[in-house]
Specification:
It is a single chain. By secondary structure, the protein is an all-beta fold. Helix content is 0%, strand content 17%. The chain contains no helices and 3 strands. The protein has strands spanning 3-8, 14-18, 36-39. Strands 2-1-3 form a 3-stranded antiparallel β-sheet, with no helix packed on it. β1 and β2 (14-18) form a beta hairpin. It starts with a strand and ends in a 51-residue tail after the last strand.
């Protein structure tokens, strides 16, 4: 069951309470009977499945070299020219 945080608008009393999802929200402060407001906290997010880890995008060889967006790509290595005459071997 989730824990909810409440704060009193009148006296400022703050407390946490464990409630079921089907329970209605509290409306009166247990100390002064003033109006309550529910406080909302940040939620921890858990990503499950493939595609969320650095190792998920690696190829079989383990190479992880990639070009950053907007960065110039490396020039390809110079290949020997196919039309160049072969050296004469005697």
């Amino acid at each position: 069951m989730p824990t909810y945080a409440y704060a009193c608008k009148d006296c400022g009393h703050a407390f946490d309470i464990v409630q079921s999802f089907s329970d209605s929200s509290l409306t009166s402060c247990p100390e002064c009977q003033g109006a309550l407001r529910k406080k909302f906290n940040s939620v921890g997010v858990v990503f499950k499945g493939s595609g969320f880890y650095r190792t998920d995008s690696r190829d079989a060889k383990g190479s992880t070299v990639s070009v950053a967006p907007g960065a110039p790509a490396a020039a390809p290595a110079a290949a020997p020219a196919a039309s160049a005459p072969a050296a004469a071997a005697s």
